[in-house]
Every structure is written in structure tokens, then in C-alpha cells.
């Protein structure tokens, strides 16, 4: 990509993201209000999030990033870690400093910038040694306790300090282990003593294979002396082939358990996917398509989580206006563009959101469609599929040319049309690059009305997600519609919404 082309892309992104404020649009789906801050990872996963050409200890970098996160609507900032490999990102007396002694530490810069914007920070207790801290090791446990004491002395009265994050990311598979509960509670005891009233957050993984039916599951969680559990949704980690299907049910099961506990239930919706292999330290974290992330937000919101936070925004979802571009070039800006458009109430995203909640109605139930064989009626039955190629609601179109004729039965004013499609490149399922919409009064003579060009989101090595082709403000009055496309891969369509309406 030439530099001129890159500059043009940023310019157009700025135009798209300008205008109204990023205030939430009042939807039933919760926005993402918090993100982890990643200072310490030093492996290939950080290829874009902490690139080597940027000094991630510089205070001016973090002052700018906190401002950008605030503009995106972030309320909570969570330190992943404030030390690594015996080097501290704060002015420690226990360890060497990871930043020059003649300037402000990155932790101080973030805390002060957050305080100016009334943001709430969770201080981390890690890492005593490295990103693989094992609290079964007495030396590591002792060092984390010493760090808590030191950090409490430095930041205990800081106006931005809201709570503490314990990077005890144990697996809930099939349930929380005794040693994890013991490790968490040993740290919380010290925190409560030194900083009374501050919230304590953990973010375990493994809900994809949790044994929710086991009565011990709830009992183990009840042992925890924490205030918030932000469960990793693991969609980015792709613990299973189609994680979103299973996730929706797991959120509901967790909600039922938390209704009996005195622990807040938050969601940690993962924003990332993988450049190469999944869950591999030699593979970089890159931004997922926003359609996938929106479905994660919808699933968590439908189950009644109190807040949605994320690993992570910084370095994954980046404003094109940022003077310090972290993240994968261009694609981090695209995900930002789409997320902010959703926050501002963009109609396409509102309709797609409603479809994820099964709250999108097709107001032309009398219409008939032909051209897809025996499965044609499925395209106008109002029922949508899951993010799973095996779902029976998907109508499958093989490679080649396809033509769908929609008979509205009478002359009808058409405003909007939404085609919901599945994107799963691992199985050669994608979207057509061009979809043509034509109209007719007599079914014999058609006039081309519009061609919708679809640009693929290329970070698609692992994920299955739903997105659409959308025509809005057509304002045409016709009886017949024709949709045509050439498929270079399989195309899965579950519904053609004509004049879709959101069901409250």
C-alpha cells in the first residue's frame, strides 16, 4: 500500500467518524465501558499493540491514549500488569524501573490522565515475575503481597484509584479450583486492609467448558472475596469452533448463579482475533470485525451483565485521529469506525443489533421469493440463524451466479432492505463482492436500481460472524424486486428483511 493511499484512507475514516458525539444511542445492548491497559507483554502477541518503534513507557503516549479512550466512552481502565521481568512501570523500591529515571512513570501518567477525566482505574497486582506468575510459588505470592503494599502507599489515595485487578486468570474448567480461590483471597485480604472500600476485580477464563450443573460451581464462586468477576467470553480465543452459540447459553447460566451471590457479573468481551494460529504466543493479536464484537455485546447484554469491559481497546481499536497509531494498520481504524457508528445509532448497526436479539421483524410477511429452490421460503420467514454453518435457518448458495425474485404481491413502497449473511472463511463461506438490486412492475422488465459493493474484512482466519448488505432510503414503489450476485465462495443467507422494523 502506498503512502498516498494510506493517507487517503485515514482521511475518509476521519470524515466517517466526525459529526455527532459518541454518546450511547439508548440501545438495549450495552456499550463497552472499560478496557485493559497492556504495558508488559513482550511476546509476538504484542506485535501491533506495543510495537517496538513506539516507546510504551513515554508519559505523553499514555496521556494521549487515555484521552482517546475517554472519547470512545471508556469509564474503567484496568492495568494488566505494572511490572514484568523484575522491572516496574511505576517508581518502585522493590525492582528496577522499566522507564527512564528522569521522567514520569507510565503508571503515574495513566493515573493522572484518568483522574482529569473522572475515569476509574483498577490497579494490578502483577506481575511479580512474568506473565506466567504462579501463585502456588511462595516467592511469587510474597512478591505480589509486597507489590500491593508498595502500590497502596503510592496510589492508595489517588483520585483515579477505583479498585484492584488480580491477574489470577485461572480456568473455570470444570469449576474454580481451591488453590485459585485461596490465592485470590490472600491478595484481597491485604488489599482490604490497605485500601478499604476499593473494588476487587478478577477475570477468569474457561466458561466454555464450565460444569454449571455441578452444585459445587456456585459454592466455589461464593468462596471468593471479590466484588466483580468479568468473565472472559473467549470468542477471540476461539476455544471452540463456533463459540458464540454456546456463549449465549453460558451467560444465562452465570446470571442465574450471580443472582444468588454478592458478586457483580461483568463481561470481558474480547476484541481481537489472530494473525496466524489461534492462542499462540508466536501469533499477533489483531482486530476482529465489529459485527462479531457486536454479537458478543448483544449476548452479554441479553443475559443482564452489569458492565461490559474488554481485552482490549488500546492497540486493537484505534482512532484514525490518534497521533500515536498502535494496532494493525488500517484494520484497527475500521473496527473503530464501525464501533463508533454503532454508538451513534447508525441505522444499519441498529438493525443488525436487533437481529442479534431476535427483535427484528420483516414487515412484508406476505411476500414470496423464488430462486433458491426448496429453501426459498426460509428467506422471508422472519427467523434468523446462529453463527454456525450447521444452523438450519441458513440458505446455502453455491459458487456461481444467483438470482432471487421477490414478489411483494402488490405495489409496495420499499424503504430499506437488509440481507443477513454468514462470514466464515475457514469453510469458504463469504459475502459476494457485489449485489445488484433491480425492480419491476410486471416481472418481465427489470431496471437496475442499485449495486451494493461489499469490502471484505480480511482478519478472518478463525472467526464466524454475521453481517449484512443494506439498502436504505430507497423510497420506491414496486411489486417485484430482483437480487442478483456472483458468488466466488459459498454464500449463506438466512433472511431478507424488507422494510425491517425493530420489535420493542
Task: Describe the structure concisely.
This protein is an alpha/beta fold. The chain has helices at residues 3-17, 59-71, 106-116, 138-155, 178-194, 215-222, 243-258, 290-302, 331-343, 347-356; strands at 32-37, 76-79, 83-84, 87-88, 96-97, 120-124, 161-165, 199-202, 228-232, 264-268, 272-274, 285-287, 308-310, 360-361, 368-370, 395-397, 400-414, 417-423, 434-440, 447-453, 465-471, 476-487, 491-498, 501-502.
If you had to describe this structure to a student in words, what would you say it looks like?
The chain is an alpha/beta fold. It has two domains: 343 residues, TIM Barrel, CATH 3.20.20; 142 residues, Jelly Rolls (Sandwich). Helices cover 27% and strands 24% of the residues. It is built from ten helices and 24 strands. The strands form six sheets. An eight-stranded parallel beta barrel has the order 1-2-6-7-8-9-10-13, surrounded by four helices. A five-stranded antiparallel sheet has the order 15-17-22-19-20, with no helix packed on it. Helix 1 runs parallel beside helix 9. The longest helix is centred in the first third of the chain and has 18 residues. The radius of gyration is 25 Å and the shape is elongated.
